[in-house]
Amino acid sequence: MTRILLFLLFTGLLVGSAVWLANHPGAIAIEWVGWHLETSASLALVALLVLIAVILILNRVYGGVRHMPRFLGRTLHERRLKRGGLLLGEGLAAVKGGDTALAGKMLREVERLLPGAVGVQVLAAETAAATGDLERAEEMFSAIKDNPKFRACGRRGLLELAQARNDEDKVLAIARDAVTSGISAPWATGPLFQILVRRRQWEDAMNVLGRAHGRGGRSARADDPQRVVKASLLCAQARDVLALGAPAQAQRLAQQALLLEPGLIEATLISARILITENKHRKAAQMLAAQWKRVPHPEVASLYLSLGDDGDPLKRLKRVEGLIESNPEAPQSRVALAQAALAAKLWGQARKALDPLVRTRPSPVVCRLVALLEEGENRDLALANQWLMHALTAEPAEAWTCERCGATHTRWDPVCSACGALGTIDWRRARKLEGSPEPTTPAAE
Ligand SMILES: [Zn+2]
């Protein structure tokens, strides 16, 4: 619309000027170095306009010619960059796909097209690593590492080379250096954490975990997916620190572990043992009783019963009744009660405690207690022996069992020695071993 208006305005002006010139004819005469030129005013005006147009066109042509080399150079450079970028991408794809021959060919091309570019260094390093020239790869990745903008890329390449060489010390050094320099990507924190755990450097592992997940290492948030792992690390640290003779620090760590995972038996035991050495028996007893309510464990019972034990079996039985009242139906509660009742020769109470366990796949511990009962109450040595034999084939009882691989362990540890998993060992009924015979209880025969 505006264009049409402008065009109409311009045409109007042109026609107006032509009419005005026609109405005001005149003549122009020029005398110059012997030249004499005479013409009408309108023709002179047209000639002037033509002259201006010619000058403008000539100026344009001159500018074009003057900038021609630079223009040609830029076009060539752009084409070079475009082709180099394309080949670099293809080279990286080839090396990723394992086509080292194609990657090498692309590398030669891009080295010519894009000399000194970091992408070319990466392609050179990756190609060298893929063809087994680890020294050349290391040299290239070291060069990339020195570039502040790409320090992470260089370190990652060096770390992967160390992993390929199975050089754990070097992997540890590179990963540690990367994490300390502020890199918290999984390629650095993952291997670092695994090595620290393998080397049982719990505190360092805990710090790496904090960096990797961007949360305070000891935060006690219930939705923290790393809660159990953190609690396990703290508990292991507490155990080591206690062994080194620093009970106050061990207590602090055990408490932090319990804050994250209140049912962690090992942490409760550590904390209670320290309280007992400080003569805080009441607090230790409360803690052990609370643990029994959550997860009953024989060591919790024996530590609880060791408090103020004067060897009187009846008093001991009373104390067991006090301990198990919060969780009386748990198999471990029945076992603890039966043990105390047997020691006090209260056969009826022992049998009452064991009966439900005998009816549902008795564990080896239960079989041995029934054997004691048959021998103590009825003097039936034959039946007692049958129960002892049965204990050998009975389904395994609760044990420190890895949730992931099912391996059982004699004591709690943050790491499963069978599968290397962290925070998976818990007190639970062990899995039956493949191929072991179906147990039959003497009572059922
Ligand atoms: Zn395992």
TrEMBL record:
Its main location: membrane. Residues 26-132 form the HemY N-terminal domain. The keyword Plastid does not apply. It is found in: Membrane. This is Heme biosynthesis protein HemY. It holds the Pfam family TPR_19. Keywords: Membrane, Transmembrane, Transmembrane helix. It comes from Pararhodospirillum oryzae. It comes from the Bacteria. GO terms for cellular component: membrane. Gene3D superfamilies: Tetratricopeptide repeat domain. The chain crosses the membrane at residues 42-62.
